[in-house]
Fold:
Amino acid sequence: MKSKLKSWRDFHHRINLVYHAIIAISLIPFALVFLDIDSGGDSISQLEGNTEIVVILILLVTVFMTCFRVWKNVKEKYEAIDPGLDIKKRIIIYFNFQIKRYMQLEAGAVVSLVGLWLTTNYVFVIAYLLVLVQFSLLRPSQDKFIRDLRLSKDERERLRGEEL
Structure:
């Protein structure tokens, strides 16, 4: 992300655009696969017997682990952002960190999509919905940004102003 940020509004617009684009990467194909399976179409499980059970377990563990990594050591990573840096630099570091978190969650969503496509098992619909709930917990907002980086009163005022 370049240093073209002039205000919080610019940053918020940019991070929201990326946030929604990342969600859409898996949401549209997931909806298509789900609707095909739910409509009674030609979709049948690509796997059979014990192989299907093993694949389901491996994929569910993978979804769980990718989602777990999103929440692991988050507080320490926020605290590692040097409060002595200019607010623009801190915003850029925060942006890059959040994008990595969104991509990790997206990986869990894609694994759920692949699981639904391979097995047609509705447990992957639940897994996907749980990933979407986590996305909603990470929705970018000014209050979340202020809380995550523990900004001082002066920094909050500067952030809410027109210029950074």
